[in-house]
Amino acid sequence: VKGSKTVWANCGASQFHLPYDEVPQVVPGHMGLRYDSLEGLKDRIRLEDTKEDKCFQEYAILIEDGKEVVRIVDQYGNVFYCRSSDGSEQRESMRQPIISKDEVDTYGRGLDYVEFDCPIGSAPKIAAFYESVLGASTHVATESSSTNKDEAPSVVARVAFGKVVVENDDDSSFLTQQELVFRETQRPIPPYDGHHVAMYVGHSQADFEKAFSSAHETGIVWVNPRFSDKTTDLDSAREYRQFRFKDIVDPSTGQVIFQLEHEMRSVQHTAWPGKNSDKK
Fold first, then answer.
1. How far is residue 238's CA from residue 213's CA, in Å, rounded to a whole number?
2. Is the dihedral angle over the CA atoms 147, 185, 222, 131 positive or is it negative?
3. In 3D, which of 44, 38, 79 has the Cα closest to residue 61?
4. Burial of 191 from C-beta contacts in 10 A (0-12 / 13-18 / 19+)
5. What pLDDT shows up at residue 105?
6. Over the stretch 57-67, which tens digit does the pLDDT of each residue have?
7. Choosing a second label site near 52 at 20 to 30 A (CA), which of 25, 212, 230, 277?
8. 234-246 burial by CB neighbour count: b if 16+ within 10 A, else e?
9. Using an 8 Å Cβ cutoff, are 158 and 181 in contact?
10. Contact yes or no for 95/13 (Cβ under 8 A)
């Protein structure tokens, strides 16, 4: 559905916000999508691949830990890794509000994670930011890349969203509903182009207001002139039921270490997908 300079595309419990402009936005990293089955996706891709004006650059069907993974690169260079469900995902049954009168349930279950390339030395500081400002559960470790076996292991910060299930007694591994992943790389990182993520904060309006107050005290609350919400203080945060920031800062120095616009929403927001949960 094309709105005012934005296209919305539902994927299960998740939604893509796609600004309509002359210059495309490209995530420096990749996105992980989850499906109940990849068969329908593969059929649609193969059919689209026969068209002269197909909607993607390329695709590949890969094997990861003995299972098929579909890698898709869109027309602008955004990379998606699509995986089938094995029943272990920590996800509740939710879906986005209907955005078209002709809409049917989406094929995808939702977005598992977004992985961003980040500078060497920044991952632990990014994790510290999410812990101290937003109270998020994080995990920092040196890991091999599941999508690039030829790449040397690198320091990775994982920021958990939703339920967290610890697998080991030493907290060395845990399952999450969704993640933001920041992987250190020596590759050049392109200048930030305005891509953003949106998320819902806590379980209540009080949780949302606490997150806003923390962000405001840190000095990172920001207004994107592209959108109608203009949150600058607690009263306007309550009015719009959301706020934005784009600077991830080192909590010890205040120095900006990464930029990514965050659209932080209250569970009282009209678009909260929890209202569409199958759970009673």
1. 12
2. positive
3. 38
4. exposed
5. 53
6. 999 999 998 89
7. 25
8. eebbeebbbbbbb
9. yes
10. yes
